[in-house]
TrEMBL record:
Protein name: GTPase HflX
Task performed by this protein: GTPase that associates with the 50S ribosomal subunit and may have a role during protein synthesis or ribosome biogenesis.
Chain coiled-coil ranges: 164-191
Binding site for Mg(2+): 211, 231
Family label: Belongs to the TRAFAC class OBG-HflX-like GTPase superfamily. HflX GTPase family.
InterPro entries to which the protein is assigned, alphabetical: EFG_III/V, G_HFLX_dom, GTP-bd, GTP-bd_M, GTPase_HflX, GTPase_HflX_N, GTPase_HflX_N_sf, HflX_C
Residues annotated for GTP binding in this entry: 204-211, 229-233, 251-254, 317-320, 343-345
Listed cofactors: Mg(2+)
GN (gene name): hflX
Single GO MF descriptor: GTPase activity
Pfam families, alphabetized: GTP-bdg_M, GTP-bdg_N, HflX_C, MMR_HSR1
HAMAP family the UniProt entry points to: GTPase_HflX (MF_00900)
Quaternary state and interactors: Monomer. Associates with the 50S ribosomal subunit.
Amino acid sequence: MFDRYEAGEQAVLVHVNFADESSKEDLAELELLVSSAGVNAVDVLTTSRSAPHAKYFVGSGKAEEIAASVKAHDANVVIFNHALSPSQERNLEAICKCRVLDRTGLILDIFAQRARTHEGKLQVELAQLRHISTRLIRGWTHLERQKGGIGLRGPGETQLETDRRLLRARIKAILRRLEKVQKQREQGRRSRKRAEIPTVSLVGYTNAGKSTMFNTITDSHVYAADQLFATLDPTLRKIELKDVGPAILADTVGFIRHLPHDLVAAFKATLQETQEADLLLHVVDVAEANYRETMDEVNAVLEEIDADDIQQLIICNKIDKLDEISPRIDRDEDGVPTRVWVSAQTGEGLDLLSQALTDCLGQSMVSYTLRIPPAQSKLRGVLYDLNCIANEAYDSDGDWVVDIKMPAADWNRLEKRLDQGLSHFVDHH
């Protein structure tokens, strides 16, 4: 279906500086994206404009300069660091005599190369189809007339209409399959909720070091590389936290500024782990000069997927690249951790991270001393099953005196389940 270009291509990059902050893109990020796609940049052309040109996005003189550069370097693709309209893409292709790709197309291509799981592949295909459906005119110019000729006359359908219909059908089929995958995930999440296992989700700008962090914490081997969008599919692992017990850690796709809307929509399921999390670990590459901007970008995407009200713990990663910064935990006035300074690569500060995780998730823990009479041996069994006993002894009356620590949710459940409630047994001495 797709004329996917092969890796190792020669590309001419085009970057336009706009005065308007909101349409500004980062050239260094484009170069990172291009190398992540396995493309070789042979030339970079930059220009400044106050607004995009309707026909070529850049001025017509610049468009000719791009065409000349393509010819001189024998390039086979032109990549713009901006979103182009279908007509701009076609006009540029006509003048450059080669493929023209915009930022969205490039990100989609990287996603297509990286998707590993069935769901990831479906989501990429969905985003690609949505992107391509607006650009269908390309490639069918020789068939724009109604199909004619002997044996083909009749009401007829142009090739374009046929394609649109096929695309619509394929998109519907993918959405149905994604819905099924989502239901399966939903069940997994429900059973975790029932077991009251907290979920911690890693979020952050692409290439901030989330997967390295994930591998270090969980001691697993998720694909991690110094390139954009190394992780596409959500990976879940169980971790054990002191005083909290088991928790689920989820690694998710990296965010990027001006992430195409099709992609945000297509990756809703991947980001669902983020929406349902009890705590977000916002991984930030503090060695980057503009890390504050990237944090804002991540928060903007979180807002878009309704996950901005979840408690966040900011992880200032890659401190090994900075001088005079040692691992530490920053706390707010209530003593709740807000930032942890660590290096996932060298492992510095990871003990502090698990301490901060325990503090954040342990807030929902309760501790009590209970005095339980011998007649209530059944309750003893329940407490043993919950594995929440910190200390136990017997007093002179034969009562069992026990210190317990358990998640507040478990305590509330027992309160409802027992005839006289657990608080009846709390020792207030």
